[in-house]
Each structure stands twice: as structure tokens, then as C-alpha cells.
Amino acid sequence: MKKLLFTAAIAVLGFTSVNAQEETTVGGFEKGDVFVSGSVGFGTENTGDLDSNVFNIAPKVGYFVSENIAAGLKVGYTSFSSDNDGTDLVDANEFAVGAFGRYYFSPANQFSLFTELGVDYTSGEDKLADAKYDGFDVAFAPGISYFVSKNFAIEASVGVLGYSTTKPDFSGAESTDSFNIGLDLSDINFGVVYKF
């Protein structure tokens, strides 16, 4: 799935580079700018008679409250299904809503490093197991942003520090708490940004 997102980012980069050749100004951010970004992904895996599919979409919108700081809102949806020789094993989905804050080290430049802190509320359901859960996530990630034209940028981030808690939605259920720290290069997230 990461390869699919990377390929999409490269395609957008190529398209916008062709359009950007006529422009003399390459973008950057400044106070008052509004931007939208996000990611879309689809993956499938087959092992013998076992088939699994996952789809996710996660748009976000941000606003520069100062020269270096942006704040925004995000939503997300993930769907996961799995079947073995036509017999459904899993049919689950998850919704997320959250807020994020970013600090850009050189936002007015074509290339900038940033750090992002995000907080999400999640709610999910496995329809076949008739199981529901709610959760809460906090994550910190560094990233890079590169403008390919006045309004379009590509970005990449990698998760480094995170905490999550989930609890099934039934009486007497125990919560599951997770704390993660580390640099996993297989968990790099690519996205496209449009600045208004």
C-alpha cells in the first residue's frame, strides 16, 4: 500500500512539475494560509484461499495561525475485510476524528522540515463479531514538505512517538493501552498538499 501511495505522489509531482515550468514563483507557507492534505490507500493480500483487503482515506485541513505554526482538523475512515474460500472472517471499519498542530522550521521556503502532534478519537466495529470499540490516540511525527509549484506540495512523515488506548463497548471490558517509540522506515506516510 505504501508503494501505491508513493507512486501516486510521484505522479502528482510529475504533473505539477510540468505545470510549474511556466511559473516563476515556487510556493511556501505564511501566516493566514489555509491548506488541505491527506492520503488515500488500498491494499490487498492473498495467501492460499485467504483474501484480505484494506481501504483508508484521511483528509485534513490546516490554518497557519502564525508564521511557523499551523493548526487543523482531520477525519479518517478505514475498512478491512477478510475471507477464507468465500467465507467472511472479518468485516470491520473504523472512523476517526481529530486535531493536529504543526511547527514548520522554514515555512516560507520551498523545502521545510516540520513536526506534528496529533490527537484522535476513534470508533470501530467488526460487523461479523458484533463487536464495537472506542479509542484515543496521541502521536508525534517529524516530516518534510516540498513545494513543486506555487500551490502544490508533497510531504512525507514518519511516526516516532505514539500512545493509544482502545476499549471494547461492553460491560466489564478492559482497555488496551499501547506506547510506541522508534523509527520504522516501513511506516513512512506520503501525502499531497494544496495551499489556497
UniProtKB/TrEMBL annotation:
Keywords linked to the UniProt accession: Signal
UniProt entry tagged with the keyword Signal: yes
Signal peptide location: 1-20
InterPro entries, per the entry: Beta-barrel_OMP (IPR027385), OMP/PagP_B-barrel (IPR011250)
Is Signal found in the keyword set?
yes
Q: Which SUPFAM superfamilies match?
A: OMPA-like
User: For the Outer membrane protein beta-barrel domain, which residue ranges apply?
Assistant: 8-196
Matching entries from Gene3D superfamilies are given as: 2.40.160.20
Q: Name one Pfam family in it.
A: OMP_b-brl
Question: What name has this protein been given in UniProt?
Answer: Outer membrane protein
Which organism does this record belong to? Olleya namhaensis
